[in-house]
Amino acid sequence: MEKLPQNLKLLLKENVSSLIQNSTSDNAANNINLHLFDQIIDAGTKLIVGQEQHVVNRKSALIFADHAPLLNWGHDCEYLLFDTENGRLLEKVPSQFPPLDFEFNRYLFEDIFTPVRFEPSQAITDVIAGALKGTFLPFIQGERYAILFSGMSNNRHVNDMEFLYRTLIDTYGFKAANIFVLNHDGTLNYNGGPTPIVAWPGDGTAYRMKVDGKGIQADFEKILEKVGKKLSEKDFLLIHTNNHGGHDGTQSNLCTYPSWAAYTASDFAAKIKKLPKFDTLMVMMEQCHSGGFINPILTNSPAKSTHVAAACVELNNSAGGADFDPYALDWIAGVTGHYGDNSNLKQNIDTTADGRISASEAHNYAKAVKVAFDTPVSGDSPVNCGDKMFLGRTASLKASVNWGNGKIYFFKNDRYYRYDWANDKVDPNYPKLIAGNWNGLWPNGIDAAVNYGNGKAYFFKGSEYVRYDIAADKVDAGYPKPIAGNWNGLWTSNIEAAVSWGNGKVYFFKGTEYIRWDIAADKVDAGYPKPIAGNWGSLWANGIESALLADNKKAYFFKGGQYTRYDVASNAIDSGYPVSTIDNWHGLV
């Protein structure tokens, strides 16, 4: 294509106000973004206008007018075509989708009027804690599977799926092999910035999800068929769809890579219908017009119980964001118990106060805290089955400590378990609330704990710590105190795990690093912190959640729904690990 002449560029840019008036939208001027295409469109060109084509009759310049820049596609937009000789408006082509080059070759478009921009994501700090207790969740008897799909992805859609992927593994103990991710071109790629694709913005760490195929209809149906061959009557399937969606005047559709091709709600539901009978289908959809998928799925699902949650009603669009899509972010944070940066939920989510988060509660939370434009809607069959539908038992443990008397204490949010080492099971009548049972300890949970073996144990939370007198069964006077200034060389906040090694040393863990602490010297040993990778064999290099040294002189490290056993004498992880926590620590989580 021929580049747009500079004089025509200047002419069009100088007449921005008239360009806005040329738009047919009723939106105010400050709600429209204008983008100038850098190349001339020849007469006879078949212009791809979203999911349709439009033949350009005369040699033209193109300005793309986005009438709702904060929403996902499809939503109202226009292709404004101008005469290349005099800059006169030739025609206005309405659409629900942008030009393909706007997605794949963004550098070809110059932003000539862009008053609407996504606000940068901000951590949520001044909110009500909505911690996920997860202590009484019924364990799904069969296998659990998940399919995460995004077609014409932007960064926010990939980030949503990464958050959900981590939650399924770290919070609920899903097997990674049972999670299938379909994205864009079959990689972590997405349209637009930021680039390069390095770190997930939730916590700044590398992306963890493995992409199994492209965001196309054929790959989705291939994976659905693969899962279908494995499903049995007691199994669970989660389907999450992301990116953009359209509506053809009759039904909703899901956009697929690479050219907005429509995967209609009827075709989608027809494939669901071909699955064998199984126990539970949970669906969460983020794309525009997603509400139009609810009834087709409910009508065709062979599952005993089906719940479908969507970001918007059938004829509406869903909101987007700088790093995440609001509805998907809130739904996922709801089932996780916190946001990706570990900030608290915006309000209480556990409305039944039973320590578990159902599909209905996750949707209702996302609906209660929704942003403008979103119109969350859900449906289930049988009616209200979403109230008793769960992803599974939460698998994460916040802290653990060997009390030195044959008992091990595990802490999880506002509750704790007492584990009997000799009997290899949780003692009767546990878990219990921390409040009323641990004199002086934070009632809503701790981050890490360690028993020094001298009658004192230390508990950490945020930037503070307390010293606990084991014999007196209470926190010593004068505590809590700040970590800063009292633990020479230790991180000053958010310690994730601690374990006494029984030799005068304590190991502290945070993120991808660890520190060795000398009890006698009361300080960190020289040369620390060090990376976990390369120093702890095959231990999770991206961090652990809790650790303890047991009476058999083995150290146990926990993460998500798994744990690893470490042989102190040989300084190596025992063969066959990691394994399931739920299956081997009886009565725990």
Automatic annotation (TrEMBL):
GO terms for cellular component: extracellular space. The keyword tRNA-binding does not apply. One of its GO terms (biological process) is collagen catabolic process. It comes from the Bacteria. Pfam families: Hemopexin (PF00045), Peptidase_C13 (PF01650). SMART domains: HX. This is Hemopexin. It comes from Pseudarcicella hirudinis.
